[in-house]
Amino acid sequence: MPAETDSPVLETIAALTAASLERSDLSDDALLMVRIAALAAVDARPISYVAHVGPAVESGVTIEDVQNVLVAVAPIIGTARTMSAAVNITEALGLVIAVMDEDDE
């Protein structure tokens, strides 16, 4: 039996993410844009986007790319979820910037 950990939920999510990355042949930027679309579809909270903001920027995904993803999925997920995603992504960006500013100080 595996040893108990202090954060089994986070470790499970990390393991699922790692398995997904290993099994996907999508480019990093395409994979992250697909994930952003999926998060928008399920009306994910800002914290869910935080884990994808850094990797997205590192892989070359731009704000315009994210806007294009939201435009593309809007007819499918609806106005309310699209606007919620835009707000939640903006909040996630703010959280990431705040953390980066604290690290710089």
Kindly summarize this structure in a few lines:
With 105 residues, the protein is an all-alpha fold. The protein has helices spanning 8-23, 28-41, 46-58, 63-77, 79-104.
Provide a descriptive summary of the structure in words:
The protein is an all-alpha fold and 105 residues long. It is 80% helix and 0% strand. The chain has 5 helices and no strands. The protein has helices spanning 8-23, 28-41, 46-58, 63-77, 79-104. Helix 3 packs across helix 5. The protein is globular, with a radius of gyration of 15 Å.
Task: Please specify the SSE layout and strand pairing.
Layout: H1 8-23, H2 28-41, H3 46-58, H4 63-77, H5 79-104
Helix pairs in contact: 2-3, 2-4, 3-5, 4-5
Mean pLDDT: 87
Portion of residues within helices = over 70%
**General form:** globular
- Domain count: 1
Coarse structural class: mainly alpha
Computed Rg: 15 Å
Strand-residue proportion: under 5%
- Written as H for each helix and E for each strand, in order along the chain, the element string is HHHHH
Work out the helix count: 5
Number of strands: 0
User: Which ranges are low-confidence, i.e. pLDDT below 50, for 5 or more consecutive residues?
Assistant: none
Largest sheet, in brief, is: none
Cα end-to-end separation:
43 Å
